[in-house]
Design brief:
Layout (H helix, E strand, L loop, with lengths): L6 H17 L3 H14 L3 E8 L1 H4 L3 E5 L3 H8 L6 H10 L1 E2 L4 E3 L33 E7 L5 E10 L7 H25 L7 E2 H13 L3 E9 L2 H8 L1 H22 L5 E6 L2 E7 L5 H15 L3 E7 L6 H24 L1
């Protein structure tokens, strides 16, 4: 197999840039450095690294070769997601787990192709050359194969449709990106339940409040976990926490939508954030309680609507007090 003329340059750039990428202080800087390295390697003029909000917890990018206008557009629009990844595998040309999507197939991958970052500068020269609406789609996946995000690239320097050889040159950059994202994601997730954890909740609620996206929150506490631990052991209690977390995440997605999140603070306490644009918090709580007996009968819930400018600890305290009020009511009801 002939060696691609950019192979030596790409390998040199990867080896030289790897340490610099790892030592960048933030994940955004790391991903931007990776995108820049792909451009520096002479493979593509424009590269965007995008993390899936459902997996990482927030809209997140690194990029290189984009104008300020394009960066602003990306920052305010939804990224491609896991569904597009599945469709890219179905309709794209597989170059070794990197997928080239011809412009004729692009509408099968994304619902509105014109609303995504695509090359508008490349001049199409005919078969074998890059078309302005072609796309290279490379998934970022964790060590279990779960998609975490993707890299999209356009405007190849040689103007030609990418080959397996080009995909092989990009693969080391994807591998280091996937590793860094997975490491950062582990810091945000609770190891027992895989819900987002308390430290990320504190980051998230400050971000939502500062960006005026916080509608309110629900504070939840499991009932009778101590009895399970005492009677059946802590391993049984851990399994009950895991089952409760899974049911909560399913119920929240069903009622609250994809933008709301479940966080495990510690022990048997959970929090659900409600974003602006959702239904009012009291209505969501009533819907939650209506479905609770079916999905998570072993949990008490309290809620509070955010008053802009209110200290966040007060918001938490109000929701927690409401939860304890309901817990007392539920215990009294069981005794009757």
């Amino acid at each position: 197999m002939p060696v691609h003329p950019n192979a030596e340059t790409a390998l040199t750039v990867f080896l030289r840039s790897s340490r610099n990428i790892i030592e960048k202080p933030t994940l955004r800087e790391k991903l931007t450095a990776i995108a820049g390295a792909i451009v520096e390697a002479g493979l593509f003029r424009r590269v965007s690294v995008q993390l899936y909000q459902d997996q990482y917890g927030e809209k997140f990018f690194g990029w290189a070769g984009l104008t300020e206008e394009e960066q602003e557009w990306l920052a305010t629009h939804d990224t491609l997601g896991p569904n597009e990844y599945d469709r890219a595998r179905q309709f794209g040309v597989n170059l070794g787990d990197i997928y080239f999507v011809h412009h004729d197939q692009l509408s099968k991958i994304v619902d509105n192709p014109d609303a995504h970052l695509l090359s508008s500068q490349a001049e199409w020269k005919g078969p074998g050359y890059w078309h302005p609406d072609d796309m290279l789609f490379a998934p970022l996946r964790d060590s279990h194969g779960k998609p975490l995000g993707n890299v999209t690239a356009d405007e190849p320097f040689d103007g030609q449709i990418p080959t397996v050889e080009i995909a092989a040159l990009i693969s080391p950059f994807l591998a280091i990106a996937s590793l860094l994202v997975e490491q950062e994601l582990e810091r945000r997730r609770d190891p027992l339940t895989t819900c987002f954890n308390g430290p990320f909740f504190r980051h998230e609620i400050r971000h939502l409040a500062d960006s005026r996206e916080l509608e309110g929150l629900l504070f939840l506490d499991m009932d009778n976990l101590k009895a399970t631990n005492d009677e059946k052991g802590h391993s049984a209690g851990d399994r009950l926490i895991q089952k409760t977390a899974q049911s909560l995440e399913h119920l929240v997605k069903e009622i609250f939508g994809a933008k709301s999140r479940v966080f495990r603070l510690h022990g048997d306490e959970f929090v659900i954030t409600v974003r602006a644009g959702s239904l009012p918090v009291p209505i969501l709580v009533e819907q939650f309680k209506a479905e609770r007996d079916r999905m998570v009968p072993n949990i008490s819930v309290g809620a509070a609507t955010y008053d802009p400018g209110e200290p966040l600890w007060e918001l938490m305290a109000r929701a927690e007090n409401e939860m304890y009020r309901e817990k007392r009511h539920r215990k009294q009801h069981l005794r009757q």
